[in-house]
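Support request, please re-run this one:
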Amino acid sequence: MKRLLLVLSVITSAFVGAMLGIIYAVRYIDLGDKYTSIQERQNSLLTNYKPDSVSLKVSAELNFEAAAKAITPSVVHIRSIYGPGNFSLNPLDNFVNPHSQSTGSGVLISDDGYIVTNNHVIEDANTIEIVMNNNQRFFAKLIGRDPTTDLALLKIKGSNLPFVPYGNSDEVITGEWVLAIGNPFDLNSTVTAGIVSAKARNIGILRDKNNLQVESFIQTDAAVNPGNSGGALINLKGELIGINSAIATATGSYSGYSFAIPVNLAKKIIDDLLEFGQVQRGLLGVRIADVTAELAEELKLDVVQGVFISSVNKGSAAEDAGILQGDVIVGISNHNVGNVSEMQEWVARNRPGQSIEVSFHRNGLTKKVKVRLKDFEGSIQSQKRAIEYELGGALFEDLEHKELTTLNLDAGVYLKTLREGPWKKAGVKEGYIVTFIDKVATEKVEDLNRILELKHGAILVEGMYKSGERATFGFDWE
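Re-run finished. Output below.
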């Protein structure tokens, strides 16, 4: 019996040992083919691999690649320089008073170099430098800016430049896919995707002493960080639908929502800056507030959505049209208005002298009136920014194209007479033709105004005399 048990124990141990050996061989010994290239191995395995064709089909509504590729070259990096300027002839200036910089993005909107960005990107800058996606660099001229909408228009000298075509922000719908394209922090262009979360958002970031700020943002969840300010918000057709302007954040970084100025408002502001050098704001002349459920109950209003008129300014467009305190505006020119942001945007798209139709509730009735808008001063006329021909003791005038051609110049303004001031102190003489200031071309006296409006501290002036003698001057401009 003992012998039988011994034999069974031996057989059992042998079987267990054999099984363990097999398991070890299967798990720990590589019995497969040997190879020396992972890439070749992958290629051999994928040769006969048939992917799920359904997963590779991307609908046009979700194809981001074409729009991103088309628009990326049109979004530029903006470097705003503050302080004494980059171009002082005295190298100690930059040592004693070092300049500081900030950056943002901009969008080319024409083939000849017009760029739209945020006002806060270039505000108070002494010099504005543009870096293209292909690393081309330009110095930009400020055409005009509007703090009330946080927009600014710049110009660089170029031709056949890539630009972003305008879309229609009125057609943007909540839930629609959009792309945010910026050019921040010298990283070249960045593209993020998201959906439209809401329209006509007011987040209370703009301030104006006359309370004329307009906030009617497109809200998205596309990731936008500070360096993307002034960049493009586009639809998947590659059309500009907004200018990225702000983020919702408590940390300074993207925290979930970003906000863009709708392009239909931006288009009007840009055209104003281009034609007049300043925004032409048509105003109703009323104090307003959102209608809420609480306000409607308190004042026994017959509507729970709209814009409540708390007061009407004397002599205003609204008073002329017969609009009264207590009326509730519910529409502008056949567009429904549910809050102050919507109303402000529709009104702000118009210039003084233009007429809009205002729909409002009064005593249970809906009325419509035509209102001819006025500016802040009560005028119905558009006002072009005044041009100063005497600057710093120097009287300037434009040169005719024929004279510029004779002098072999593309641009320049003529210093006709000179008295005491920074020009004379720097050694400039009468008859001098200013061609560049801090590398920005001065084509007209109007350009000279716009350029010098930015300057605080040292500037570099380049030009020539009619004799052909070229001369460069560096001096402080205040």
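Residues 2-28 form the longest helix (27 residues). Residues 82 and 125 are 5 Å apart (CA to CA).
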